[in-house]
């Protein structure tokens, strides 16, 4: 979860959301947020004029890490979040920002599968959907809706669980039964105890092409640190910088990025 969870509901998800929020300060989340932030910045720099104030939609924004980061960079950000608890955390974080940043952010409660009910087609230059698709059993319609929100040349940023690497965690834990089962399925139980699904690179590449936002770049996220516990503390700054440098390079380099826990895919609206 960076973010909200269309299709997830009930006590199980509420407990999962609580556990997610408790682990926000840990190493796994820090690596994820920092790498994805760098990658989004890189894609924006490659596709838009320097200094352009972009219209950004963060679907399933969760606690608002990426939304606030982009608002601080000068962009106009709309955050859409289904879970009231996550939305409350994001509002608390926004409340302590300077007025100029607060004025650039709009937070809405809503389902990411229903963007058409909230916004007009072509309303945004950048659409983020991070940590959401794993909670959506059949995501194609949702992805098509997200693509419609983009203006021509707009950037669609997706962060998903890597369905081609589900066996890695089981194998590294010595769970050979789980590893063997994971080769043939994209269903899994995440660390929050929720039954969810992963996406394969080839499948999402085909989907992005079909909805008019073909894949332009992709990265692996958390190649080396996925096995750490959610609450594991950050190392000293110099060690953290080396860790992030190694993760960043692995996430751009074959074959390492192919076995990352997460995939960050960037499509561009034609």
TrEMBL record:
GO terms under biological process: methylation
Transmembrane segments: none
Keywords tagged on the record: Methyltransferase, S-adenosyl-L-methionine, Transferase
GO molecular function: methyltransferase activity
SUPFAM superfamilies hit by this protein: S-adenosyl-L-methionine-dependent methyltransferases (SSF53335)
InterPro entries listed in its UniProt record: Methyltransf_11, SAM-dependent_MTases_sf
Coiled-coil region: none
Residues annotated as domain Methyltransferase type: 57-157
Protein name, entry field: SAM-dependent methyltransferase
Species, as recorded: Streptomyces amritsarensis
């Amino acid at each position: 979860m960076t973010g909200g969870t269309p299709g997830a509901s009930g006590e199980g998800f509420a407990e999962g959301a609580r556990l997610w929020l408790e682990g926000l300060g840990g190493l796994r989340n820090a690596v994820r947020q920092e790498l994805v932030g760098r990658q989004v910045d890189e894609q924006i720099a490659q596709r838009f004029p320097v200094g352009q104030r972009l219209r950004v939609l963060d679907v399933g924004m969760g606690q608002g890490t990426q939304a606030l980061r982009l608002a601080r960079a000068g962009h106009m950000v709309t955050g859409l979040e289904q879970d009231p608890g996550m939305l409350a955390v994001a509002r608390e974080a926004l409340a302590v920002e300077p007025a100029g940043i607060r004025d650039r952010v709009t937070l809405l409660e809503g389902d990411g599968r229903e963007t058409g009910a909230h916004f007009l087609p072509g309303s945004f230059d950048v659409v983020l959907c991070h940590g959401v698709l794993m909670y959506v059993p059949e995501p194609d319609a949702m992805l098509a809706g997200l693509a419609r929100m983009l203006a021509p040349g707009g950037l669609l940023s997706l962060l998903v669980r890597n369905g081609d690497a589900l066996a890695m965690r089981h194998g590294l834990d010595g769970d050979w039964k789980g590893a063997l089962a994971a080769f043939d399925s994209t269903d899994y139980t995440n660390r929050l105890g929720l039954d969810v699904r992963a996406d394969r690179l080839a499948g999402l590449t085909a989907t992005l092409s079909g909805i008019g936002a073909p894949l332009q770049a992709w990265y692996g996220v958390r190649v080396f640190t996925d096995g750490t516990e959610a609450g594991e503390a950050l190392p000293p700054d110099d060690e953290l910088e080396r860790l992030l440098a190694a993760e960043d390079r692995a996430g751009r380099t074959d074959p390492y990025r192919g076995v990352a826990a997460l995939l960050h895919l960037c499509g561009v609206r034609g």
